[in-house]
Amino acid sequence: MEIEKSLPYGEGGADAILNVQPNTSISIAYHQLFGPHDDLMLLELDEKLLPDILNQRVTIRGQPDEDAVLCSQTKTYAIKFVGTSNSLFLIPPSNLSIALGASPNSSEKDHDNAMVASVIKVVPGSMELVEVAPRLDKLKLLLSENPYSFDEVSQMNTELTHKNKGLYSWSDLVEKVQASDEELCTGLRALAAVEIDGFWRSLDENFVDAILNMLLHNAVLNDWLLSALNEDEVLPVLEADGFPREIVKHCLGVYGSKVDDEIRGGCTWRLEERPVCVHFARVILRGEKMKLERFMEEWRKKVPEGMNASFDVLEGEVLTEKIGIETRIYAFSVSSLSSVPAERFSKLFQEKPKWEWKELQPFVRDLKVPGLSSEGLLLKYTRRSQPSADAEPIFSAR
């Protein structure tokens, strides 16, 4: 190619290539602004993402030490560079010289070169987007730095606390967590986070335990039905006991669900069996292993009357081990595990080298990897063995 010293306005740009007819050719030359242009990159897109890109509904997220991801409003995409062995010429619009401030220098000789396409950059490859799971482990870590506790309420030191490290607004989380807005909202709900004075907080376990116990105590005193808790009655009573109204309402949403009450009207809540039973199991097992019989006895005492403390509700929350003829139980929650499959399976097989499927399933069914099925995950990270045709399959590390 020859270096093109000057092209007239409207000539030599991408439009020259677009108008080339079949079985014809066109000359190409270096543009006067030819160079590496590291700020120009090609991005290959799926058509379904094109409206989001054109309407500026996407963002690039990641810290300097992280690989960048592109987030739409609902999904997260890894950005991968794909090299090409063929030369790919980037030809700018014909009015690029005007846009970049190059001086005009039109002449009759330039018009003779009207069909010369000017190359501004040779592209070594392009970027492509691969849908990935949101990286929410960091969200869990950030919210654990400064959980909201009863001390904060009783000491009324909110302003002082807000100056401390470990408090994050929505904009802080968007900046730090690689997930789309929708995925970030889902992650906050899964962690039972609540927005307090503009900051998203997790709640201290002892604080939540105190709220639930006070709620159950007042339910007995006031003859409240746990299946029909009237918000207008519950909130003032617990607020008088020192619990902030908005935090109590949040806990009703975490441990219960709204129901229609045509008789009394207003907002009515029903405490749900599983989250309440799991909460008290976690409190009892905090930091220790117990004999199964002793645990079941204490657990049934804690669980409200009318709720069934069935061992089945603890799937994904506990593990058991046999020591001689004795069975012990201890807390091992799926919520404490990484959402990265390789890290998840590594931790599981550190805990137990071999798993039956009925034990393993609760700890892996929440793993979501776009483009990879649950069966594919198991094939990639585990070895399956089956002593006999009617035996339970056993999974070990690959």
Automatic annotation (TrEMBL):
The keyword Kinase does not apply. Pfam families: Dcc1 (PF09724). GO terms for biological process: DNA replication; maintenance of mitotic sister chromatid cohesion. Keywords: DNA replication. InterPro entries: Dcc1. One of its GO terms (cellular component) is chromatin. Belongs to the DCC1 family. This is Sister chromatid cohesion protein DCC1. The gene is LOC101267349.
